[in-house]
UniProtKB/TrEMBL annotation:
Phylogenetic placement of the source organism: Eukaryota, Sar, Stramenopiles, Oomycota, Saprolegniomycetes
Any Pfam family the entry gives: Aminotran_1_2
Record's protein name: Aminotransferase class I/classII large domain-containing protein
Organism for this UniProt entry: Achlya hypogyna
Family designation: Belongs to the class-I pyridoxal-phosphate-dependent aminotransferase family.
InterPro entries listed in its UniProt record: Aminotransferase_I/II_large (IPR004839), Class-I_PLP-dep_aminotransf (IPR050859), PyrdxlP-dep_Trfase (IPR015424), PyrdxlP-dep_Trfase_major (IPR015421), PyrdxlP-dep_Trfase_small (IPR015422)
Domain Aminotransferase class I/classII large: 78-414
């Protein structure tokens, strides 16, 4: 097993109290949940908790047939554990396996860190925002950014401070200037939310050098970085770029990963990893929201990772990246063929999106709603990725599910519309 270096040290340069919202600080550990990890101690007879008796559950065993032809069987203690209430951070063996994988992949500087399994990364993000962001706070976000995050933030009603992005993602100079010039009378932002790889919607990735610049700015201004990286493993060109977590000497990075794009989105398994005080407080939100994420989904992921080992995991990642690289290339060819002169776009090096600027179209939402749907080509209007819901000529296209023929046909339909417009 890989040495768990970062987990043995227990210092952090930061104190987190001032980052937590009043609502989050009022959350207390659940007395019953605190007993949960002790249930599995050797020799323990539990008369505590409100665990149902698994002998009444109707499931004997579950067999999962993989596309490789192999079968994974969930039975006995593993199945019983999966079907019973389990610890809030996740099934311990899965937490340990994922922690080791993260340590190997990111080798973060030594610091007390924890990892919790969440119901997809959306769940972890929701709780992180609930933990760190009040109505009177200001949050630094990239423009454009993920609509799912905006949907939540709009309801929080905090100030969204937009930082420009370019072909390499978030622009450090703009971030630095925004903070340097922050008006003295206003509450200063303390959190930056960023999607560093294969950004949704832009498909753009941040270079390591940029991440270092951003990290230095975060150090200067005392920011916590929320690193939302569900496309990290979908690196289509070149090696994966080291994460913010990998450079986090201070304990200011909370990192969100997801199995949604790699194993299954319906399993709803993601992780949050970062300084123990942050992750433990986030666990308090889980305790009152959903106790823990689905044990069965966790057990499936654990069984798969155990079956695969490192080699199997890596070869699966290669297969997934090969697939999306092929999809991207087909889609880019279709764009070249049909949209040259009618639109402009970037070449994404990761993820599954292309951010397309439609020439001569002021309001892409109107075009999509009024014409594209009727012409049977569906795109997401750029507006939904803009914090101020501003009208834009951009659209987001995903090359993940359409066949090569469908991609060509869809882009030709869009081209016809643009010519007509
Ligand atoms: N963050 C980003 C940037 C995403 O694109 C998505 C999925 N569309 C999520 C988070 C949520 O992913 P999950 O399925 O892990 O909840």
């Amino acid at each position: 097993m890989i040495a768990r270096r970062g987990f043995l040290r227990s210092f952090s340069a930061m104190s987190y109290e001032s980052y937590f919202t009043a609502k989050s600080l009022r959350r207390q550990p659940s007395a019953i949940r605190s007993l949960q990890p002790m249930v599995s101690l050797p020799g323990m007879i539990s008369l505590g908790g409100g665990m149902p008796n698994p002998s009444t559950f109707p499931f004997e065993s579950m067999a999962v047939k993989l596309k490789s032809g192999e079968t994974m069987e969930l039975a006995g203690a593993a199945l019983e554990g999966a079907l019973q209430y389990s610890p809030t951070p996740g099934i311990p063996a899965l937490v340990q396996t994922l922690t080791s994988m993260m340590e190997t992949e990111h080798a973060p500087p030594a610091l007390a860190r924890s990892l919790s399994v969440t119901t997809g990364s959306q769940d972890a993000l929701y709780k992180a925002f609930e933990m760190l962001l009040s109505e009177d706070d200001a949050l630094l976000i990239e423009k454009p950014t993920y609509s799912g995050t905006l949907a939540h933030l709009n309801a929080v009603n905090c100030e969204l401070v937009c930082i420009d992005t370019d072909g390499e993602g978030l622009v450090p100079a703009h971030l630095g200037a925004t903070l340097d010039e922050w008006p003295a009378h206003k509450k200063k932002p303390k959190v930056l939310y960023t999607i560093p790889t294969g950004g949704n919607p832009t498909g753009v990735s941040m270079s390591y050098a940029r991440k270092q610049e951003v990290y230095a700015i975060a150090q200067k201004h005392g920011l916590i970085i929320l690193e939302d990286d569900p496309y990290y493993y979908l690196k289509l060109d070149g090696p994966r770029v080291k994460s913010f977590l990998s450079m986090d000497v201070d304990g200011r990075v909370l990192r969100f990963d997801s199995f949604s794009k790699i194993l299954s989105s319906g399993l709803r398994v993601g992780t949050v990893m970062g300084p123990t005080p942050l992750v433990e407080r986030l666990n308090l939100h889980t305790q009152s929201a959903n106790l823990h994420s689905s044990g069965l989904s966790q057990a499936v992921v654990l069984a798969l990772l155990q079956k695969w080992g490192e080699a199997g995991w890596n070869s699966h990642l290669d297969m997934v990246c090969d697939f999306y690289r092929g999809q991207r290339d087909v889609f880019l060819r279709a764009l070249d063929k049909h949209l040259t002169g009618l639109a402009s776009w970037n070449v994404p090096d990761s993820g599954m999106f292309v951010w397309i600027k439609l020439h001569g179209v002021e309001d892409s939402k109107a075009l999509i709603e009024q014409k594209a749907v009727a012409a049977k080509v569906l795109l997401v209007p750029g507006q939904v990725f803009l914090p101020d819901n501003q009208v834009t000529s951009y659209v987001r296209a995903a090359y993940s599910t359409a066949s090569p023929e469908e991609m060509d046909l869809a882009v030709s339909r869009l081209a016809a519309l643009l010519k007509e417009t």
